[in-house]
Give the backbone structure.
Amino acid sequence: LESRSNGKITADALGFGGEDDVSMDDFKYATLGVTLGASVLGVLALAFLPENIGAAVCYAMALIPILFIGIGSSAPGIIAGAIKTAKGTADTEDERLDRICRHEAGHFLCGYMSGLPIKEYTTTDNGVQCVEFHPSQEGPVTGREFSSEEIAALSCVAMSGSVAEILGLGDAKGGENDLLLLDGFFRRSKDFIGAQKQQELTRWGALAAYNLINDNASKFDDLVEAFKTQKSVPECIAILESR
């Protein structure tokens, strides 16, 4: 991956290659924090929410530590990267805006180029446009597993935000949720995807995203500016369709 991206896209830059920079104590305290936080939220849900809703939220909270440990056992670099990011230096407000817009523009470009229909395009509380795609060219997907072709496209789209951050800022800080979503898609694959295959698909997705963004660099730059000025979906699509 590093050699095929001119040294730009590395595990450390993506935020999930930081095992050497994170101690076992960091992992221990993170696990304890996640478990304790989920437990407290579960108890509060039972105490203050209506009975049925409180029970559902409590069960959901109980799954969070299991999910955390599951990801840590199959891809510890993801957890290490998240810890490293949390301990890192915060961006200034302008840098943060630029980072978010690059991240979302990366998703938009790669999702559109992969043929996935837009599910949602909203303005977040911080005033930045956020795009979400359906996981299949068919649109909404319920009750079925994903083909290998769909998993490949989802890998590219999931990694595109982090790759876009790296190309503009040298590192990625906003990819944890994307990796969690991608992990969920892996679990819904028709073909079993083990830990090694997951890592290979994640790296392939990052390289595919790098190639798409690099091959459409000028359009991507225009798309970043479009996100900063809160352009509409048709205006963003027009940028990608322009010659």
Remarks:
- The beta strands are 118-123, 129-133.
- The chain is about 65% helix and 5% strand.
